[in-house]
Amino acid sequence: MAKPLIVARDLSIIYNQGKSNEFKALSGVNTDIFEGEYIILFGPSGCGKSTLMYSIQGSLPPGEGTLLVKGDDVYSYPPSERVYFQRHVMGIIFQSFNLIMSLSVLDNVALPMIFCDADKTTRDRRAQSLLDRFGVGHVSGKIPAMLSGGQQQRVSVSRSMVNDPKILLADEPTGNLDSVSTQQVMDKIDEINTFDRRTIIMVSHNAAHLSYAHRVYYLKDGKILREVVNPQRKQIKPVREGETIVTELEQLARLYPYDSVETWRVKSMINFLTQDYTFSQIARLEHAVGLFIEGKINRDSFIKSLMQPSERGGVEVPEDEAKRMAKVAERIIKNSDDIRRFRARKDNDAIFFSQDKLAERMSEHLANHHRIKLSKQQNENMTELIADRVTGVANDEEFNSRLMKGIRSKGLALSENEADDMTRYFEKIIAQGVDVSYKL
Amino acid sequence: MRVQDLAQLSTRMFKTNPLRTWLTILGMGVGTGAVVILVGLGFGLQQIILEQIVFGDSLLSLGVSATGAQGLTLTPEIVQKFEANEAVVDAAPLARFPALVTYKGLTGNVFVQGAEPAYLRYAGITPSAGEAFVEEDINDASSIMLSPAVLKLFGIEDEDAESFIGERVSFRLLVPADDGTDLVNEIILDKEYIVKGITKEEGVLNALMMLPELREYVGIDEYERVQVNVVDNENLPLVEAWLVEEGYRVTALSKTVEQATQIFKGIQAVLATFGGIALIVSAIGMFNTMTVTLLERTKEIGIMRTIGASPNDVKYLFVSESIVVGFLGGVTGILMGVILGVTVNLFLNFIAGQYGGQAVSLFAFPLDFLAFIAIFSAAVGYLTGIFPARRASTLNPLDAIRYE
Question: Which of A207, A299, B78, B99 has the fewest CB atoms found within 10 Å of its own CB?
Answer without folding.
Answer: A299
